[in-house]
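Worked example

This section walks through a single chain of length 169. The input is the sequence exactly as stored; nothing has been trimmed or padded.
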Amino acid sequence: MSGPVHSEAGVSLIETLVAVAIIGVVAMAVVLSIQPGTDPLDDEADRLLARLIFAEQDAISTGQPVGVVVEDYGARYSFYRYVDRRWWPVRDNDALGGHQLPGGSRLRVDDAILSAVARSEDDEAANIPAFWFDPAGMTEPFRLRLESADTVLELAWTGDARTGWEVIE
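Given that input, the structure is written out below as tokens.
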């Protein structure tokens, strides 16, 4: 014969559920920590694309063209706004402030109206954007090439409201 059964004997259902929940949380943390990281150039392309879309919307909402100037041989870019017949750096909007690309990354403008215009660094013409967003939404197509040591990404503005941006890898 067996002895009396005590209420403290065994594991309750609640204790089992708590243990399973803890194991689930730990497993999720392990899975999240071993996922491969993204390419820094992909993150930079996402950042650039978001800022360009914001610049386009800013031009439409303010009624003033917003352009992009690539500086320091492609290591930096800044946004400029056309006011009083002159291009001025955008200083009133943090999202459109200048941006330094991470080490070794470069931005090049291809297939834009003014990308072939020779500009010197000491001339005021150096601050004329290679492309800009028109307040009427009639921006000409252009291509940007974002490069690092081992990756090249192209962003293309098609000028077509149906397709918009294309990322070409």
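What to look for: Residues 68 and 101 are 14 Å apart (CA to CA).
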